[in-house]
Write a structure and sequence with these properties.
By secondary structure, this protein is of the alpha/beta class. It is built from 13 helices and 12 strands. Helix 8 links the parallel strand 8 and strand 9. It is globular. It binds 3-isopropylmalic acid and magnesium ion. The site of 3-isopropylmalic acid (IPM) has 6 residues, from helix 5.
Amino acid sequence: MAKYKIAWLPGDGVGKDVMEAARIVLDALKFDAEYIPGDIGWEFWKHEGDPLPKRTIEMMKQTDAALFGAITSKPKEEAAKELDDHLKDKGLVYFSPIVRLRQEFNLHTNMRPCKAYPGNPLNYKEGIDLVVFRENTEGLYGGVEFHPIPQEVFDVLDKHHPKMGKFRQYGLENLAMSTRIMSRQKCENIVRQAFEYAKKHGRKSVTVVDKPNVLRETGGLMVRTAREVAKNYPDIPLYETNIDAQAMWLLKNPFDYDILVAENMFGDILSDLAAQLVGGLGFASAGNIGDNYAVFEPTHGSAPKYAGQYKVNPIAMLLATKLMLDWLGETKDGERLESAIATVIKEGKVRTYDMGGNNTTLEVAEEVARKL
Ligand code: IPM
Ligand code: MG
């Protein structure tokens, strides 16, 4: 029997291309695993009304971790239009399967390293090495939303909050509401993960990013909780910044920051910004990590126009594979893989189009495999 069972979830579009690349390096590493394919993505939405069928979740529960490619997501109305006829008008609502996976498996920590590998022509500046810790299950992406706002909900809010009344004039059918519910527990957890990582890897600081001057309750909770957690790590300074200013400062002074920690949506935005500093989404990998399970993915989308063309950069996927190896405790293999990737980037002989080359997705993976 293989040492590990890995759920294999290519998903949509170029997800399939980059997962093939991942397999090339895993095989070259002689990683001892059984890969179990799982249904996820747009096809299953269209034909079954569920982009993340229950059988996939059940299958995943039998595995040690999952590798995930990419997913096509569309807004509510557009998604509903693409359903097979027999599924239309059943009130089915599309909800991003990756966001659901994070919630179903309580993958509370989204870790996103952003490192400028030397020689990458797309680096904003050499030497950038940031890690974003994004709370992954609640906050603005918690999924508690209304449109229209039900009368009872409106009435309760109106009773408890003086600012609600002014919205009545528009009519409930014209009001949409997305909530940002945050728990002290999850704030504490994500900040603790950030500090633990900083401590383990000798990082110099942790910066908590929110907007507590406006989002007084949720932002306030995050920042106050971060201060509490920071007391346990007297050697690592905690900086506090506002999301808007942080976006500017990250461009201005990227070397002032090290580990960044934020709520779900702010972390989402911040991690794309940080990714661009080190070459863009072709280099951005993520671990969605829970207590006993984790899903690893490149953070780029499914890029439908490039699907099946083996054009896109597999490095984000390969770095996600490295994160998986580390998480499983196969850190030697993780290091070998990272250094092979770094060598290929530095040599610059085999590159996809985004890096100015004309090699295919799989040629890059094969070159990385050779360096192993
Ligand atoms: C990400 C992506 C997802 C997110 C989308 C595809 C739902 O942007 O992983 O950052 O917002 O979390
Ligand atoms: Mg994102």
